[in-house]
Amino acid sequence: xxxxxxxxxxxxxxxxxxxxxxxxxxxxxSAAIVERFGRYTRxxxxxxxIVVPFIDSIRNRIDLREQVVPFPPQPVITQDNxxxxxxxxxxxxxxxxxAATYEVASYIQAIEQLTVTTLxxxxxxxxxxxxxxxxxxxxxxxxxxxxxxxxxWGIRVNRVELKAIEPPTSIQDSMExxxxxxxxxxxxxxxxxxxxxxxxxxxxxEKQSSILxxxxxAKAAALxxxxxAQAIxxxxxSIHAGDADQKxxxxxxxxxxxxxxxxxxxxxxIVPSEIGDALKGLSGAMGNFxxxxxxxxxxxxxxxxxxxxxEQPPID
Length: 316
Known about the structure:
Helix content is 54%, strand content 20%. It contains 8 helices and 8 strands; from the N terminus they run αβββββββααααβααα.
């Protein structure tokens, strides 16, 4: 009985192994290459798949998702004979699992070597300054060459990025000094421009202030002169409206003359024509006024010459 039990156990184990090899579960975004007696048969897609046990075998399982591969820095010589180290990053995706398995031995290594040679060809036609400022151009040219070359391998290169471009240390020092000099130059220019603009604005403000001040003083002087002239005219009109005699007119004119002379803006005096007659009348009145008039030598009886003495009242 024991040999039979052992045989049954072996059969059960073989059946279990056969079931395991028959049922193949492929994860999402993956593919598997099936070979029968060493020859490609088919590609298993994601999901549950049935294969013939002990006859079909899984050659390779390939991830169909987009992959990111960074490559180490590569020394590249520019057109002006300077060595720069360039780091690259490749974004690729397997589109044909069969081609990626049978068309190239190692597509990762093939992509790396193709990237290095293509990069040297592109950078070799550029000088250092253009290399540092033309990343987009280099990326586009490199991606075009890689995508065309890897198409037959079942690989699609989606993006190529230059992660770093490192020139020699001496060149870096020279570039830093140049950039520092350029920044200092721009700062000096901006400072000088600011000072110039400030001086222009200050002068412009002083000019406007002087103009406004002069205009204000001129208007104030004109208004002051006009007010004084109006006051003089009002006084003259009031005197003439009151029909004053020549004595009063002369006295008022003499009082107004000092006021007319006041003020720096008065360049012309207005002297009415009546002032001559008024002054003549005033001088005549002052000549006729004599406090001793009418007093003479009479008799002791108090008789006189028959004239009446009257005192002339003083002129205010």
